[in-house]
Amino acid sequence: MFTRIDHVGIACHDLDATAEFYRRVLGFEVTHEEVNEEQGVREAMLRTNGTDDGAASYIQLLEPIRADSPVARFLARHGEGVHHVAFGTGDVAGAADAIGGRGVRVLGGPRPGSMGSRITFLHPKDCGGVLTELVQSAQQDARTESEPDE
Amino acid sequence: MFTRIDHVGIACHDLDATAEFYRRVLGFEVTHEEVNEEQGVREAMLRTNGTDDGAASYIQLLEPIRADSPVARFLARHGEGVHHVAFGTGDVAGAADAIGGRGVRVLGGPRPGSMGSRITFLHPKDCGGVLTELVQSAQQDARTESEPDE
């Protein structure tokens, strides 16, 4: 069902300073930046490696753009650190349906994530304290559409 | 310097129950189990994907085996959840030296990690709240030894 660690999401107060830390200290470069108004965050994606499902893994840095966003609330409660872990799938809607049927709360339907992906989340209290994200990348969307099952 | 997300380390109270959750709900199987007496943990590695540096990414589940281990103290303070993020390198000693020279506290010299790897950690207060592990896998050791620089 899931074929990779898609990304690790890290909450920070200052996206530019944190991205510079990852570049200078660990050698990871920002490969994409965007604002997700719905999630209330500015985010940077730092590609760490390619994965054997044809996609890639990333560090995702998240800075809140308003005080009532989930990431702002996380920072107020916990301070900076790991916010969530995301797993990649070719079918986020199907994965969410299957997981919901296993007694885990799915937090809303698939919606836009980073770089044209479709995402949803699982309740951390149902996942051993880990806010777990499900991701279908834009490339996986395109592949699904151009290579239908036969 | 770092060529992959090697693993995400997750602290839990009950390794077997948490591994069963990852199998049943997310479809990830335990591919390795061991006890690390020095770190004071029992751990399970769940391989999520291969990586384009010839290694792989894992979810690492950690259950303390004694009350004074770092993971036991983490659980007492924070409850279950993400404990650390590990990045893979072909030269953990060199990476640690370089990073120490950039003003980040390295927590001890390279020592045994999961599956024959060599590991060390960076202080979370120097890394935006993320306990950051550096990993040189056993395969990377073997490759280095069998293919010396010419």
Please sum up the structure shown:
2 copies of one chain form a homodimer. Chain A is built from 4 helices and 8 strands. With 150 residues, chain A is of the alpha+beta class.
Structure description:
- The structure is a homodimer of 150-residue chains.
- Chain A is an alpha+beta fold.
- The first copy, chain A, is 26% helix and 36% strand.
- Chain A is built from four helices and eight strands; from the N terminus they run βαβββαβαβββα.
- Chain A has helices at residues 15-26, 70-78, 92-100, 138-146; strands at 4-11, 30-36, 41-50, 56-64, 81-88, 111-112, 118-122, 132-136.
- The first copy, chain A, has an eight-stranded mixed beta sheet with strand order 2-3-4-1-5-8-7-6.
- Residues 143-150 of chain A have low confidence and may be disordered.
- Chains A and B meet through strand 1, helix 1, strand 3 and strand 5 of A and strand 1, helix 1, strand 3 and strand 5 of B.
- Chains A, B: One of its GO terms (molecular function) is methylmalonyl-CoA epimerase activity.
- Chains A, B: Belongs to the methylmalonyl-CoA epimerase family.
- Chains A, B: Keywords: Metal-binding.
